[in-house]
Design a protein that fits this description.
- Keywords: Chromatin regulator, Nucleus, Transcription, Transcription regulation.
- By secondary structure, the protein is mainly α.
- Among the domains are: about 30 residues, no CATH class; about 80 residues, no CATH class; about 120 residues, no CATH class.
- The protein is about 50% helix and about 5% strand.
- It has a 3-stranded antiparallel beta sheet with strand order 2-4-3.
- Helix 8 crosses helix 9.
Length: about 625
């Protein structure tokens, strides 16, 4: 009998050996020594290059689809500076349909041509987000030329009333997708297209597209590209300037693309400041700032940069026309400066706390029905953890009692005894108030609201909520002398309120020190409450209200480098500060000051509630002079 042998756990190499052994060892030598055995083949990028060179349509389609996938998932694998053939082929396949359209041979465009063009454009769009590839693509004049041709065609196709070739209608959706990709490509590449002339075809085509579309995604890309195209190259060397007869460093060519902007273009961008969309507002503000601070010389200026900037500011504000631009900026910029900042609402800060009159009588009728929390106050308290929720509810709905203790109800009141509540009524009122919590948690725990405090712990917590209160057991004599006296479990020192108060007032009244009635009555320095004159103000409460308002105001602390501050706040401040500095100090600026005053009447109240806006420099102090 043969003794069995243990076979170890197999791994791929072991499996291969066992398979050969089971085959009697046939071809074992050949399997191990075949030419190319163990070689994985060319890497993915080499294969893509070979496919693009092959001219075989199926291989080209595979290469373009694979490139689009790689550019999306692993764009760092594609370096156009080291693999120029990939960049050249992508541009060639992208431009193919537009070459055919320029030659007026729309019938020759096939689905394969459109598909390859769109795949190539998508890959270029993804690769253009990488800095190294941006620099390579920006140097391609062919790419820029056909990007311009693409924009022209898309304007004609989507925004022109002219007849379109029937053969191209099947590609409408692909044209829509291609337009988005072209704008995405132009966004980073336009940073490298500097010193553009007034007749620059790309700039002017983007202006046409700006006036034609209302698509948010396109508008953001268009305005960003226009902003980039306003960039100027640094000044030439002194030797070149001397050759051109230029003497001042800030003198540049006057035929810049910034002068191609018309009132309609500026008005449309200004109007986006009134739209509640942060992305659109941000790109519009960036464009306006670049437009106002551009160092390009205006054709009507005497080679003066400051005069050129002043002329463009007047054009932007439309000072010699409808002045609509001035109204939009004076209305929008102050609001944008403080938008999104954690500010205190002026409604939460009263200008003068209302005085509270002192009590002139120790007796206050006790309501028989406990007041209910308002919905706003309930929504806050119900989410508190225990015992904070129980403590806060007690202080809002009950008040401490400091008058003379009595065991009888007042003749003009209900049966409720002042300064005393039964423990069972207190618990039932609390349970009824928060019925939503314990009803919803019967079957399973409620993740939204913490569970209620148990009855025993709730009663013990009353003395924490009101330090001057205490739980007591009172013996009530029975009407029948043969029967034993009854026990009554009460809380002494609190009573229901007439009206619910807010959390701050409840905390103050519960924790303030109350002198005992006996000491007050017998003290010569502290006259009885009945001796107070009519209209006497409770000074302690008044000072507490003043301190509360001051604490609210001082709690807001803003700095320009805090996380809550956005680029919108900072750019809006820069633009408004520039406008006020240049125009508001002129003798003829009264109209602008009036507009600023009309639209920003709310600003003093916001500054009163948030003085840190002045301290941090969001609002300049001299701006307030124009509100008077």
């Amino acid at each position: 009998m043969t003794t069995p042998h243990a076979v170890p756990i197999t791994v791929p190499s072991t499996k291969k050996v066992l398979m050969l052994q089971q085959n009697g060892g046939a071809n074992a030598y050949l399997q191990h020594n075949l030419i190319g055995s163990g070689f994985q083949g060319p890497d993915i990028m080499l294969r893509i290059k070979m496919c693009l060179k092959s001219g075989i349509e199926s291989e080209i389609d595979w290469a373009l689809v694979t490139l689009s996938q790689i550019s999306c998932t692993s764009p760092s694998l594609v370096n156009l500076e080291k693999s120029r053939i990939i960049g050249d082929e992508l541009i060639n396949f992208f431009k193919k349909p537009f070459q055919i359209l320029v030659e007026a041979k729309a019938m020759n465009i096939t689905p394969d041509i459109m598909s390859r063009s769109l795949d190539s454009l998508l890959t270029l769009r993804n690769l253009a987000q990488d800095l190294v590839n941006q620099q390579w693509l920006s140097q391609s004049k062919t790419l820029k030329r056909y990007l311009i041709d693409a924009v022209k065609f898309y304007i004609y196709w989507f925004y022109s009333a002219k007849d379109k070739p029937q053969s191209l209608r099947a590609y409408h959706d692909q044209f829509r997708e291609g337009l988005n990709y072209v704008i995405d490509v132009l966004d980073p590449l336009s940073c490298y297209y500097v010193d553009n002339t007034k007749n620059d075809p790309l700039f002017n085509q983007l202006l046409v597209l700006l006036n034609s579309t209302d698509d948010k995604y396109l508008l953001i890309g268009i305005i960003k590209s226009l902003t980039h195209l306003l960039f100027l190259k640094k000044g030439d060397s002194e030797s070149e300037k001397e050759k051109d007869g230029e003497k001042e460093e800030n003198e540049v060519i006057t035929t810049k693309c910034i002068d191609a902007l018309e009132d309609a273009h500026l008005s449309k961008i200004l109007n986006y400041l009134l739209v509640s969309d942060n992305e659109l507002v941000f790109v519009s503000l960036s464009f306006i700032k670049e437009y106002l601070l551009s160092e390009a010389i205006h054709p009507l200026s005497n080679h003066s940069m400051s005069e050129s900037q002043s002329l463009r500011l007047g054009k932007l504000l439309q000072l010699h026309g409808s002045k609509a631009g001035a109204q939009i900026l004076m209305k929008a910029l102050p609001s944008l400066i403080i938008s999104g900042l954690p500010l205190i609402s002026p409604a939460d800060v009263s200008s003068m706390p209302a005085p509270t009159l002192s009590k002139r009588s120790q007796y206050v009728s006790v309501p028989s029905v406990l007041p209910d929390l308002s919905k706003q106050l309930y929504d806050i308290i119900v989410r508190f953890p225990e015992p904070l929720r129980a403590t806060t509810w007690l202080r809002c709905c009950y008040e401490p009692f400091s008058g003379p203790q009595t065991t009888e109800a007042h003749p003009e009141s209900s049966d409720t005894i002042p300064g005393e509540v039964t423990q069972i009524s207190l618990w039932k009122a609390y349970e009824k108030q928060f019925e939503e919590v314990w009803q919803s948690s019967k079957n399973q725990p409620n993740s939204e609201f913490p569970p209620l405090l148990p009855a025993v712990d709730f009663i013990k917590n009353v003395s924490s909520a009101f330090p001057n209160s205490e739980a007591m057991v009172v013996n009530i004599p029975s009407e029948n002398p043969d029967q034993p006296s009854k026990k009554k479990f009460i809380i002494k020192g609190i009573q229901p309120r007439q009206f619910v108060v807010n959390i701050d007032v409840g905390n103050y009244e519960a924790l303030k020190r109350n002198p005992s009635p006996s000491s007050d009555a017998n003290s010569e320095s502290n006259p009885g409450v009945s001796d107070l004159p009519v209209g006497h103000v409770d000074i302690d409460k008044f000072h507490h209200s003043i301190d509360y308002v001051n604490d609210i105001i001082l709690s807001s602390s803003l700095k320009k480098d805090s996380k809550s501050v956005s680029a919108i706040n900072l750019i809006s401040h820069d633009i408004l500060s520039y406008i006020i500095q240049v125009l508001f100090k002129r003798p003829d600026s009264k109209y602008l000051q009036d507009i600023f005053r009309v639209y920003n009447y709310w600003l003093p109240e916001v500054l009163y509630a948030n003085p840190s806006l002045l301290d941090a420099g969001f609002i300049e102090l001299d701006w307030l002079a124009f509100l008077l």
